[in-house]
Amino acid sequence: MRIKLISPRTTMRRMDSDWKTRMSPPLSLLVLGALTPPEHEVGIDDENVEKITLDDHPDLVGITVKVDTFYRAVEIARHYTQRGIPVVMGGIHVTARPEDCLPYADAVVVGEAEHIWPRLLEDAARGALKKVYRNTAPVDIAAVPVPRWELLKGKNYLFTNTMRIGRGCPWRCDFCYNSSDNIDARYRMKPIPNIIREIEALGIDHVMFIDDNFIGSPRGARELIRELKRMNLTWHTAVSADVGRHEDILDLMSESGCKSLFIGFETVNRENLLKCRKTQNRIERYDETIAKIHQRGMMVNASIVFGFDGDDTSVFPATLEWLVRNRVATMTAHILTPYPGTSLYRRLSGEGRIVDYDLTHYNTAHAVFLPMRMSRAELEEGHRWIYRRFYSWEGILRRWPVSSGQVTAYLTFALVYRKFGKLTCGLGKLFGMRNLAMAARAFAYPAKRTKNLSAERTVSSWLRFDTLGEFSGFAAKGNVVGLSGGKKAAISHRALVSSGSAACICSRTGRAPACGASLPDSALLCRPD
Asked: Left if phi > 0, otherwise alpha if psi is -120 to 50, otherwise beta: which for 184?
């Protein structure tokens, strides 16, 4: 079969630019592509980065649906179902509210797709699709395949360096999709060798981990970060606000190349945290946590939500004061949004407080419910106000980074992405969005030079040398060159401690290989740094 997977156009917020929609590809569709048996032809169309064709004739169409893309997904589905082409809908909104999508698709997928997709394709090939495919068994996270990056038109995205180390979250905040009955929200981390393979498949040394909570398993995070230290990466991730309790993890993050942490602080009002069941957050520890992160040279991106029942209009200046005082580098602010299927939606719906059912407004920039202590208009204006003030010249200067090493990244995000985002997007359309994004990234995070190896560290790699042997603790005063010689040797090489320390560089990628990486002939050179 010829299978077409589609990601519909998202709805933009007033403060966003095309940078956001072009940032990275839909990982879920790349995983579906990897799950598709080789006898089928599969392609991906993403309406956020290109105009999609709707007059083609695939054998099966799959559409991933978020709440704000639901109406557009329905339009796309009709283009195909009216011509007798079967359409399958899946994704977070379909899983949380399958009843919304059932009238518009030949089949819907509820839950994770690993067990479902191959069986669904067999049914589609026989012309015997079922109306609902519901995942009823736990998915073995170790069996999740590496995304099929080759399916992308890479030039359309700013970055193709995103990945997840697991699924789920140990917490159950009532506004999060993890509170939905249909979602398996248990935290499950992939085996570390699988994660390393995915990183290597990206073919780049700058990685963005987009998990809900990178420290969902603190023990697993520690083990993984120790491996990341070997890879000489620059990386970013999201963590819960209790990360400050794990100072050893913060140390490891800093030492291994982590540059920024996205943290869901959500509110500076203790009453709000209790009501939304975000029990892991401790407001009295916020300042200390941020200070610990800054001391280790990492930036903080604070996620803030406005509109909780404890909020009145004073929450906006109070939150701004807290952000500026703590020199928080970036802020992602949201209006509390009751996503259909979540605990928050059920509560507000039961109280009769949801008044706007236009799902394109469910993008965290509209007040779709009646706030308790302010009007909907005040909530929306306060949300826009804090963005204006936070990214004003005054706000940018008052939040100047604590660490000088953060300055270029700080200015790149504040100016290129946020303050002048629409202008820089215009330049990107002239010179190439991806070209401009890569230039901005190079300015924010200059390429690393491989440093001296630590005296305690051992790196094991598969190399090819003229003779089979084991080298340990050799001096690096002169050149030591490993070339192809037809024999594979497991070389364990320790710290090269002398005036001319050596570095191991892969001639193909230009960086140190991952532990245990299989390298081609002539792949590794040991040379003075």
From this structure: beta
Largest CA distance in the chain: 77
Domain hosting 112: range is 2-134
The size of the chain, in residues, is: 529
**CA–CA separation, 179 vs 189, rounded Å?**
19
How far apart CA 153 and CA 141 sit, in angstroms, is: 27
Candidates 167, 171, 30; CA nearest to 112 is 167
Strands (E), 379-428: none
Place of tokens 């606000």: 241
Which stretch of DSSP H or E encloses residue 9?
Answer: none
| Tens-digit pLDDT profile for residues 108-157 | 999 999 999 999 999 999 999 999 999 988 889 999 999 999 998 765 78
Q: Among 134, 153, 181, give the residue marking a domain's end.
A: 134
142/422: higher pLDDT:
142
Q: At what angle do helices 218-229 and 247-255 cross, to 10 degrees?
A: 20
3-class secondary-structure state, position 23: coil
In terms of domains, do 170 and 306 share one? yes
- What's the token pair of residue 395? 């706000």
> Is residue 414 in a domain?
no
Instruction: Give the C-alpha separation, 145 to 382, whole Å.
Output: 43
- Strand pairing partners for 90? 64
